[in-house]
Amino acid sequence: MKRLPDYTMVIRPDDNGTFAAYIPAIPGCHAWGRTQEDAQAELACVFDMILQEYKEKGLPMPEDVELTKAYVH
Fold it and tell me: For residue 21, which of 11, 28, 33, 64 is within the disulfide window of CB 3.0 to 4.6 Å?
């Protein structure tokens, strides 16, 4: 079974001074926090809940996705 370290995690500053964290490969797996560490800790809790839901339904966890960092000029 997949674990949180098996996925690409994105943490970015939000407009209101907090941080948003999400796993692009897993729909609905997102969280926020006052610091990057808070956002990451909250995301770990959300991941655990989603993992449990997938297990209960007998579904495989999604495969990770590869992200491309792009800048618009």
Answer: 11
SS3 of residue 53 by DSSP: helix
Residues 29 and 20: beta-carbon distance below 8 Å: no
Structure tokens at 4: 């949180």
Categorize the per-residue pLDDT at 64 as very low, low, confident or very high, splitting at 50, 70 and 90: very high
Using CB atoms within 10 A of its CB, is residue 56 exposed (0-12), middle (13-18) or buried (19+)? exposed
How far CA 35 is from CA of 16, 17, 51, in Å, comes to: 12, 9, 24
Assess contact for 46 and 32: CB atoms under 8 A.
no
Sheet with 30-33: list strands edge to edge. 10-13, 19-22, 30-33
